[in-house]
Amino acid sequence: MSESRRLFFALSLPPRLQKNVIQWRADHFEPDAGRPVVAANLHLTLAFLGEVSQQKETALREIASRIQSPAFSLKLDDVGHWPRPGVVWLGTRRAPLPLLQLASLLRSHAARNGCHQSTLPFHPHVSLLRGATRPVALPALTPQWQLDSTEFSLYESRFHRGRTRYQCLQSWPLVTPSAN
């Protein structure tokens, strides 16, 4: 029997933006608000795949390699709290159409390959805190950071020694319009 891995497609945050997010979070949230997501794990999930066999992973990588989706920018200008899953997040008030299309495409391919997909609507966000099940005071002002997305990636979620770490397995470019 082949070993499965816990996988997801996501957009990464560049190191400088990771640093800005971590500092902003430290400045605006109480230490007991929840468990902070480490800088290296900050990402925007496009499609969660769950436990995936090597065969399904190979098929999904092949599909990802054929995607011709345009590059885009989005503004991280919204913050919120989902008490039931205990997540404090940073998101966008106006998701660009190419982001929504890319997520929809990846989710539909994942579902066709046997990866259960949530029935909840796609809400692009970066998880900042986990385990935030009590009310959390949200900052009145939100940052206005721009995330320029030129690629999407396949990640593995690994739990080791009490910590979850995300490892980028492969990335694929988004199509940049050529200048005429």
TrEMBL record:
User: Which regions form coiled coils?
Assistant: none
Question: Which reaction equations make up its catalytic activity?
Answer: a 3'-end 2',3'-cyclophospho-ribonucleotide-RNA + H2O = a 3'-end 2'-phospho-ribonucleotide-RNA + H(+)
Motif HXTX 1 is found at 43-46
What superkingdom heads the lineage?
Answer: Bacteria
Domain (Phosphoesterase HXTX) spans 12-89
Report any Pfam family annotated for this entry: LigT_PEase
Q: Give the Gene3D superfamilies listed for this entry.
A: Cyclic phosphodiesterase (3.90.1140.10)
Alphabetized, the UniProt keywords read: Hydrolase
- In this protein, the active site sits at 43, 125
Kindly indicate whether the keyword Membrane belongs to this entry. Answer: no
What is the protein's known function?
Hydrolyzes RNA 2',3'-cyclic phosphodiester to an RNA 2'-phosphomonoester.
Instruction: Name the protein family.
Output: Belongs to the 2H phosphoesterase superfamily. ThpR family.
Q: Do you know which HAMAP family this protein is assigned to?
A: RNA_CPDase
Know the name of this protein? RNA 2',3'-cyclic phosphodiesterase
